[in-house]
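JOB MANIFEST
job_type = single_chain_structure
chain_count = 1
residues = 459
[input]
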Amino acid sequence: MASTLSDYDDRTSTETRTLLDFVARTPADAVPADVLHESTRCLLDHLGLAIAGAAEPAAAIARDQCRILGGDPQAMAIGTGERLRVTDAALVNGIACHALDFDDTHVPTILHPTTPLYAAGTALAEWRGRSGIELLAAHSFGYELAARVSNALYPEHYDAGWHMTGTTGALASATVSIRLLGLEGVAATHCLSIAATQACGHREQFGTMTKPFHAGHAAQAGVWAGLLAAGGFTATPDPLQGRRAMFAVMSSTSKPADLVDGLGDRWQIFDNGVKPYACGVVIHPAIDAVRDLAVRKGLTADRIDKIELHVHPLVRELTGKTDPRTGLEGKFSVTFACAIALLEGRAGEQEFSDTAVYRDDVRALMAKIEVVPDADVPHTQAGATALTSAGETVKTWVDHARGTPGNRLSDDDLAHKFHGLADGVIGRDRAERLAEAVFSLRSTGTVEALLELTTPATR
C-alpha cells in the first residue's frame, strides 16, 4: 500500500498516523482469510450473547428509555425485533452482549473487544447497507487498533482502575465507524479523537449493571464519533500521544511502539479468547483447575475438606466477592464460581442464578475454598490443591485456560455455546439458520437479513 501519511495533520504522531492509515485504507479483500474467520467466529459469539442478553434487566431498562426518547427506527435491537436510532441500537446491543459477562477477551490486556465492535458495527452496517465482508473487515481492523492501544496502555492503565472495555473499547467502535462511514486522513483522526475523549469506565463498577453500560457506551461513543467526524466536527490531531492526550492521562508508562510493531504481519485477533464460562475471565483458569479435580481426579464435594487455589493477584482483586447476593455478583466471586463448577460440572449462564448463590451445598463448598494470590502465576494459569477427608493431597495445574489461544475452543465448541444462548430465545431451527448465515456472510447475504434471524420467529 502506498504511503498516504501526508493526508494526515503533521501534528499527529507518526505511530498514530501509521496505525490509522492501516485500519482506514487497507482494502477488505486484503484481510487474510484466517483473520476474517476469527472475526466470523466473534460475530457468532456476539449474536448469541446479544440474543440471550436482550432479556437481562440492564438491557431492558436501556431499551425502554431509548424507546421513550424515540427517533427513527434505523437499526435492530438484537433479539427483540425492535428498531432504534442507530446510536441507541449500539448502546442497547452493547449492554445486552456484555450483561452476561460471557463475551470474548483480548487475553494480554483483559479487553472485551467484540462487544463494542459488533454492537456498533451491526447497527451501522444495517443502517448504511454495508456488505458482510465490510462488516467482518471492520471488526478485524477495530480489533487490531483497540488491542494495540490496549497493549500500549497495559498494565498501568488497568491497574489504576480503568475498565479497558469502556476506554479502548470506544476506540474499537470508532474504527468500525471509520471503516463503515468511509473516513480517511484527517477525518479518521478526528473520529478517533472524538472517541478517545469519551473513553471512560471504572473497575469499581464490576458486579453491577454499569459494567455492561461501559461496553454499550463505548459502542455508542464510536458511532457518535464517526457521525460527527463525517459531518466536519473537529478534535485534537494527536488523541493518543499528545501532551495531555490519552496515553499521558491514562497510563504512567505507555508504550507507543506497540501501536505499530509487527503491524500487518502479526494480527492481534489471534490473541483472542472465547469464554467457556459465564463469569469474570480471570476466574477461568481456577474453574478449569477445580473441574479437573472433579473430572480427572474423581473428587466429589463430600470428599473435600479444603481447596487451596493458587492464582494471579487479579483474581482476588477483581472477583473477590465472598458473599454474593445475586447471580450477577456470583460472576465476580471466584469461590462461588469454582464451587458451582465443581458441583455441576459446568459454569454457564444457568449456573449463575440468583437462587444458586444461596444453595446450602454451594455455600458449604465455598467455605472450604481458600484463594492464595501469587504474582508469579500468569492470569491465564491457576493451580488447585485439595485436601480430602481421607487425608490425601490432590493437586492439579492449568497452563492454558480453556478458550484462550493456547487452548482454543473449536468451531464446534463455539457453536455449542451459541446454541445454548440462542435456542431458548429464537428456537433451534432459527438459530441453526442464523449460524449458517454468519459463516456464509463473507460471500453471501446481507447484514439486514442476518439480523432478522436474531428475532423470535413468532414476533
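[summary]
The chain has a mean pLDDT of 96.
The longest strand covers residues 304-311.
exit_status = 0
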